[in-house]
Amino acid sequence: MKLIICFLLFTVSFVSVAQESLDYIGLWSFKELDRSAMESIDEEKIRLVTNMFQEMKLEILDTEIYQMQFMGEVQESSYTKSGDTLLLDKGDKFILLDDGTARMESGNARLLFAKGDFKNQKTYSYLTEDKYALQSFKTESLLGKWKVQEVKAAEGVEGGGMYEMIGMMITFNFITEEEVALGISGIQTVEEYQIDMDTQELVFIKPDAEENRMYAIIQVFEEYMIVQHLKEKTYLYMVRE
Predict the structure, then answer these.
(1) Options 2.40.128.270, 3.40.50.2000, 3.40.5.10, 1.10.10.60; which CATH number does 26-115 get?
(2) What is the pLDDT of residues 199-216, one digit of tens each?
(3) Is the pLDDT of residue 19 over 70?
C-alpha cells in the first residue's frame, strides 16, 4: 500500500510539474506599455508607441523555440528558461508574471503581454476619421517646413505598424512653389514639383522616373495639413515647424 501511495504521489507531482512547464507555451499578444517602469508619463508618446506595437505577438512553440510576429514579419528563434524568465536569443527577457500575463524587457522598453490571440483598438488624437475628402487650397499656403505629428495606416493593411513608424520620420520643406525638400530621418533631398490641382497630387518633375506621384495633399490649413501616401493609403497629419 505504501508503495502504491508513493507511486501516486510521484505521478501527481510529475503531472503537476509537466503542466506547470507547459503553462507558458502558446500565443501571447502585446497588451500595453508597462507604465510602472516609466520615469515620466507622456500620454501622446505612449499612445503613439502603443499603436505601433499593436500587431506584436510572441508564440512559444515548445520548450526551446519561439516565433516573433512584428511589423508584418515573422522570425523564429530559440530561448532558454530560467525560473519564470525566458531568455530570448537576442538578449531580451520574457518574464512570466502569472498564468495570463508576461512582461518583455527589451533594452529600455517594458512591454506587457497577455496570453491569447487578440489586438487592441488603436487610438488617434488628430486622424480620427477613416477617410478624408479633398479640400482645395492655394499652392502658396504650402510654403514652409512641416513635420509629421501623427500617422494612420489603412485599416487591415499588413505591416501597418511599420508604415506608421516610418511615417513619423518624414518632413516636407516647401522652399518655393517649385522646389520642396523631402526628408526622412533627417536626410533631405530637394526636388522640383508641381501640384495636380484636379487630384491634388504632389508631382515630382522627373521625366524618367517610374513613380513621380507619391503623395496627395488632402487638406491644408494655417497650422496643419493632411497628406496621404498614394500607394500605402496612409494618412499623415503634419504641423508647421
Answers:
(1) 2.40.128.270
(2) 999 999 976 666 788 999
(3) no
